[in-house]
């Protein structure tokens, strides 16, 4: 496996080593499934990306994850794209099939799998805070699931509008933009609220800019932040009777989907979540 943004080959053989959370989780999952596979963590500078992708193909890698800054640049180096990856214009997972490299985006699919454990977004009123890479992946998958409405709330108008245009034009989703101005009050009709910003990353006291009183019992509230998993938003939401989803579920599920695509084997999400918690010491 190739995770292309990090430092060097950190694991070639033997026990999993603590290279990064995804590598640690994958190696544990390979072991649990009885697969003698390896997930390597490799840093590739942008100017070497084409060489690295050609090398992946030549060396018969089954696939890999691509992280920032390669998620968009890798598109033109691949032979084909999944429909969702083509709509998003970003790839985080590549697999090799019949000598061709195919690009997929598992971030949004991983989120949707988590969300569906609580509710199906079809015919629901969904609000997403953020318009960056994570929001884009989630919004496209939610949009494809036919929500009743899809509101993108973002601090920067231009970035928010770009996402709304993509959702309307490429996904056919009923998307609208709200530019963040102070704390956002969730409409009473909101069924699902997702924080897809980086607010809360590494800070368990960081507040998401929403009116806490607009979190209502029964609402599903999700956060993409996985460290710490219990953000202020999720704590406030649980205290107000909402059903909550943490970012660890999304991280595990996108890895489950990658594992399945590469190996054809169903991994154990419990083993993967446990490995993540162990790695992150949470
Ligand atoms: P980006 O940098 O692409 O986007 C960040 C978003 O957060 C933008 O919409 C930005 O708004 C918004 N934002 C950041 N700070 C603030 C603030 N103080 N107030 C209002 N809005 C703010 O990041 P990504 O989308 O790639 O990642 C976002 C988070 O998602 C990261 O923390 C990442 O770790 C997490 N993530 C989790 C995954 C998982 O599996 N759980 C998977 C992928 C990502 P603006 O446009 O105005 O700058």
Automatic annotation (TrEMBL):
Class of enzymatic activity (EC top level): oxidoreductase
GO biological process, one term: chorismate biosynthetic process
Ribosomal protein among keywords: no
Domain of life: Bacteria
Ranges of residues in domain SDH C-terminal: 247-277
Boundaries of every Quinate/shikimate 5-dehydrogenase/glutamyl-tRNA reductase domain copy: 119-198
Substrates-to-products reaction catalysed: shikimate + NADP(+) = 3-dehydroshikimate + NADPH + H(+)
Gene Ontology cellular-component terms listed: cytosol
Catalytic center residues: 71 (proton acceptor)
Keyword vocabulary terms for this entry: Amino-acid biosynthesis, Aromatic amino acid biosynthesis, NADP, Oxidoreductase
Family annotation (InterPro entries): Aminoacid_DH-like_N_sf, NAD(P)-bd_dom_sf, SDH_C, Shikimate_DH, Shikimate_DH-bd_N, Shikimate_DH_fam, Shikm_DH/Glu-tRNA_Rdtase
Molecular-function GO term, any one: shikimate 3-dehydrogenase (NADP+) activity
Residue ranges of every copy of the Shikimate dehydrogenase substrate binding N-terminal domain listed in the record: 13-94
Binding, shikimate: 67, 92, 107, 254
Pathway: Metabolic intermediate biosynthesis; chorismate biosynthesis; chorismate from D-erythrose 4-phosphate and phosphoenolpyruvate: step 4/7
The enzyme's E.C. designation: 1.1.1.25
Family: Belongs to the shikimate dehydrogenase family.
Subunit organization: Homodimer.
Role played: Involved in the biosynthesis of the chorismate, which leads to the biosynthesis of aromatic amino acids. Catalyzes the reversible NADPH linked reduction of 3-dehydroshikimate (DHSA) to yield shikimate (SA).
Full protein name: Shikimate dehydrogenase (NADP(+))
Organism taxonomic ancestry: Bacteria, Pseudomonadati, Planctomycetota, Planctomycetia, Pirellulales
Name of the gene encoding the protein in the UniProt record: aroE_1
């Amino acid at each position: 496996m190739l995770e292309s943004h990090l430092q060097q080959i950190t694991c070639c053989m033997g026990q999993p080593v603590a290279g990064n959370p995804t590598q640690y989780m994958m190696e544990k999952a390979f072991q649990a499934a009885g697969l003698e596979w390896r997930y390597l963590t490799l840093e590739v500078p942008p100017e070497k990306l084409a060489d690295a992708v050609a090398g992946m193909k030549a060396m018969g890698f089954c696939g890999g994850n691509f992280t920032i800054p390669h998620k968009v640049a890798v598109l033109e180096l691949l032979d084909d794209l999944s429909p969702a990856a083509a709509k998003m214009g970003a790839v985080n997972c590549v697999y090799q099939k019949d000598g061709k490299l195919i690009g997929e985006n598992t971030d949004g699919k991983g989120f949707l799998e988590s969300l569906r454990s609580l509710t199906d977004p079809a015919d629901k009123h969904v609000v997403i805070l953020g318009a960056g890479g994570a929001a884009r992946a989630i919004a496209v998958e939610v949009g494809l699931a036919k929500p009743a409405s899809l509101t993108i709330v973002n601090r920067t108008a231009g970035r928010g509008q770009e996402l709304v245009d993509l959702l309307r034009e490429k996904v056919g989703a009923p998307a609208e933009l709200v530019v963040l101005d102070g704390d956002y009050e969730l409409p009473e009709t909101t069924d699902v609220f997702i924080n897809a910003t980086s607010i809360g990353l590494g800070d368990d006291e960081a507040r998401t800019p929403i009116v806490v009183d607009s979190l209502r019992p029964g609402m599903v509230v999700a956060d993409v932040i996985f460290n710490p998993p219990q953000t202020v938003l999720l704590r406030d939401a649980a205290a107000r009777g909402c059903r909550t989803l943490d970012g660890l579920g999304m991280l595990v599920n996108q890895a489950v989907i990658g594992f399945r695509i590469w190996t054809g084997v169903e991994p154990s999400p419990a083993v993967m979540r446990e490995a993540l918690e162990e790695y992150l010491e949470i």
